[in-house]
Structure formats: C-alpha cells, structure tokens
Amino acid sequence: MIEVEHLSKIYGSTVAIQDVDFSVNSGEILGFLGPNGAGKTTTMRILAGYIPSSTGTARIAGYDVHEQSMQVRQRIGYLPENPPLYPDMTVESFINFVAQIKGIAAGDRIIKVNSAIERCQLTEKRSVLIRKLSKGYKQRVGIAQAIVHDPPVIILDEPTVGLDPKQIIEVRNLIKSLAGQHTVILSTHILPEVSMTCDRATIINRGKVVKTDIPANPTQDSPLKSSYKIEVEGDITPIIPLLKNIPEVIELQVNPIENNYHSAISILAQPNQEIGKDIAAIIVNSGLGLLEMRRDRPTLEDIFLEVVGTGEVK
Ligand SMILES: Nc1ncnc2c1ncn2[C@@H]1O[C@H](COP(=O)(O)OP(=O)(O)OP(=O)(O)O)[C@@H](O)[C@H]1O
Predict the structure, then answer these.
(1) N or C end of the chain: which has fewer CB within 10 A?
(2) By alpha-carbon position, which residue is closest to atom 3 of ligand 1?
C-alpha cells in the first residue's frame, strides 16, 4: 500500500534523509522508529505530499506522491506533529469543515463526521470549543480530521508527544483500532509505542534506514541471534564438543559457578532456531544434571540499541 524507494531529501548542506527504502502492507501498522533528528518528520511530510523529495519515489496505493498528489491526498489522512486545529470552532464544526475541504459530498457529510467523532470517542465533546479541550482530546480531534474521509492510508507523526500517560494509552488504543480497515504508518522515538501499537517496525537513524521488517514484538522471527543460558551439574568436559557440534550453534562460553561440577554455559545460536531440545538431550544423555535452561529472546530494544546505540531511548 505504501512503497518508498531510494528517497532522499537535502536541505542546502543538510542531508535530512538518504536512500530511504521501506514498504507498508495493506491493513498493517508500521512503526517508523528513530531518535530525534533521524528524518522521521521529513519522510512523513514527503509521503503526505507536503514537501517534494530531492530524489527517489514514494507511492501510495500505486499513486506517486509527487506526480499524482491529488489522487494521493484523497487516499491519505495525515496527522502532523503539531496538527493545525481552529481553537474557536467546536469539535463538530471543525470536523465538518475539514470534511467539506476534503470534498465529501453534502449528503454523506453528516454520516462521515459522526462516524469520525464516534471512532475517536469525541461524542461527549462534539459541541465543545477546541481551545477548551485537553491536549489528549485535541490529539483525538487531530486523528478525527485525518480519518473523516475514510482514507485507506493514515500517516501519524509522533501522535503521542506531549500527552500524559493516561492520554497516551487512550490514543494508542485508538490507533490500534484503526488497523485492518486502514494502513497506518506511525513515526515515533518511543520504543514501547511501537511494541504496543504496531505490527512491524523500520528503524531510521541519521537519515538512513538501518533496520527494516522487524516484528514489533520480536518474540519469534527475530533478526537477532537467540541465546541460551544453561546451568549444569557434573563434569561438562565431554559434552562441550557435542554442544558445539549442534549445527545452529555460533558461540559457546563456559563459566564455572562453584567448582568444575557446577557450570553455567551460554550458547549463542542462529536467529529463529529452537535448539533447546537438542541441548537438553545432550546433557541428560550424558548423565549430567540439567539445573536450569533459559532462552533469552531479543527485544525490540535490543535491536534498536544494536543499530542506533544508546541515548534517545525512552
Ligand atoms: N526545513 C529544513 N531546513 C533545514 N534542515 C532541516 C529542515 N527540516 C529538517 N531539517 C533537518 O533534517 C534532519 C531530519 O529532521 P526531521 O525533522 O525529519 O527529523 P525527526 O526524526 O522528525 O526528528 P524530531 O523527532 O526531532 O522531529 C535534521 O537534521 C533537521 O535539522
């Protein structure tokens, strides 16, 4: 539904993004994750047709965002980092106004406006002036204006920045409820936001995509290696070559805990390989005591830290 290829944007001597490639499947929520200044807003603005790219292409539902911007605008809803809301309008009159600008026919407008208000849980605030709303409700109005024309694609730039913890949960739930019916791309620098809201993540750092196609909750199919921590009782000398011979094993380390008869073994294996049964069989068949075996699965945070380094992580 969204296809980005070799996208670059250069401001004078600043390369904001360089050779950015990624895609988002229909009905999916993609987290576009990166530290401050990574190039997230620049990418979102190009996708939304607000600024042109310097080179490369971006297509939404098959339409080029630059060459076919009218077709693209009809098919996207965009929530910028600071959504422009009219503070002296009520929620309903503002959403109605946006619906008019987006070309929704008068006959359909009431239904579409009501649906956006309901989906964003704004019913009790529909007659309230926007300036009297809390930041969390204002953000819901921002999302309501983005979805009022029922676009297949929704682009959200840092949708929970500045919200309190309760508002953050409410807005994340609202975003999750958009999946399936809409394809969503969400930019954020907050790791848990991706784990809680998205299906998949792409990580951008210093203008370049450094990792793509990461499951937002990488408990399986992780691109990182799996690691096993084992505690064994008995003389482990004979089993070390057997463990090393398991084809998926990359690295093995032994740390004696108390003496040579109580050892901790760390094993690093190829990504997405389940070798727990093989390890256990070797230990038990050799007559040793298997005291503990734990598989440490890499988290999104491990992956983020591996490619971006420390700092900037919330
Ligand atoms: N209009 C502009 N003119 C010059 N440089 C710009 C402009 N807009 C962005 N940049 C630069 O491009 C780089 C990427 O900025 P961008 O706003 O896209 O990052 P971001 O990931 O959204 O960061 P943040 O979360 O802090 O908004 C930064 O170095 C920024 O200073």
Answers:
(1) C
(2) 11
Interface confidence, given as ipTM, is 0.94
Q: Whose CA is nearest to atom 31 of ligand 1?
A: 37
Q: Which residues contact 109 (CB under 8 A, 6 or more apart)?
A: 96, 99, 100
Measured CA to CA, the distance from residue 11 to residue 46 in angstroms comes to 13
pLDDT tens per residue across span 88-103:
999 999 999 999 998 8
Q: Cα(189) to centroid of ligand 1, in Å?
A: 13
| Helix, strand, coil share (%) of the chain residues, nearest 5 | 35, 30, 35
Which residue has a Cα nearest atom 12 of ligand 1?
16
- Measured CA distances, 279 to 245, 251, 264 (Å): 11, 14, 13
Tell me which residues have their CB closer than 6 angstroms to ligand 1. 11, 14, 16, 34, 36-42, 189
